[in-house]
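Hello support,

Our group uses your service weekly, and this is the first time we've seen a run hang past the timeout. The protein is Choice-of-anchor D domain-containing protein. I'm not sure whether the cause is the sequence or the server load. Input pasted verbatim:
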Amino acid sequence: MKRYTTAKLILFSVALALGGCSSVPDSSAMAASPAPVPGPALVLSAQPDHLVFSGTRDGTGAGASAVQTVTLRNNSEAPAVVSGVGFGGSPEAFALVSPPAFPQTLAPGKSLSLSVRLLPGSAVGVLRTTLNVLDNAVAVGAVPLSGLRALGLEGDQEPTLAQIADALDYRVNVGSSNLLLGTGAGLIGDEVAAPLFERVSAAPVVLRPVARYSPDGPSAYGFFVPEDGAARTQVLGTMTVGGHQTLNPPLQAGSQGSFDPGSAAFGIYLAASSYAQQDTLTLDRLNTGPTRHAVRVYPLRDRAGQVIPGSYLLAFEPSANGDYQDAVFVLENVRPVAAK
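Update from on-call engineer: The timeout came from a worker crash unrelated to the input. Re-ran successfully.
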């Protein structure tokens, strides 16, 4: 269960006051108090800046949470002290793995890494908290954490597409909070018609798998260009065996996170697999499986509801039940175009 491959390095900056300055007043004159000396800065860096976990209620086997790491770094020129850490929000849902003894003194330029995981538990759905960095029991910095805890593995035990979007911190109306969204061609929720895309800027197009709730086995994906009534496909990556019920699924070595489609209109596809014998494409007319409208596309909005320009959530249904979370991708630096 992976996680993230893109780095957003600077997360939060806090100043830890490690003691004030004192002055003894002269008995014959009032002396102005000196300005407090700022303490050294701790810069919290994480990859990415919002850690997202997934697991199941019992937390065993493929339902176990992956461990992720938060790093505290002292970028000042003086030692900095971390007296401890704590969890807010849903503290029973998360825990440190092999926590260090506190307090910890970080010399200039030194770092402290903290490993975190989502715990098993009875509560299911999206769980949120913050990992709080403490200076004498006072929180001086926080790293947001969210976890998606499923009932179990596969079938009706899986999380919904709405829960997946929420856990990833996207405010997207996917059309229903139910597991099954239906397989009709009508647009639902925030969905837009997007059979094909074109690149917005000269930068590469980014394609990231952000969820996979399907049967196990390798699962390849990539982009295609329509050509003579068929699809000319190009594999970009493969989701690995064993990472089939998770957010941010692990990828095989050599998988690409971006590509250059040139000026041609292109679509995104999920390759045939052991449980779906056909490719599944954003262009409905090329789909030969049990679901014709097999990909739902939603413009991305961040947690505050602001549109993320040029970014879309792609939800795939290669089978017939209509849950649209067998594979979910974020596609960036594109705009939808109509198929000719």
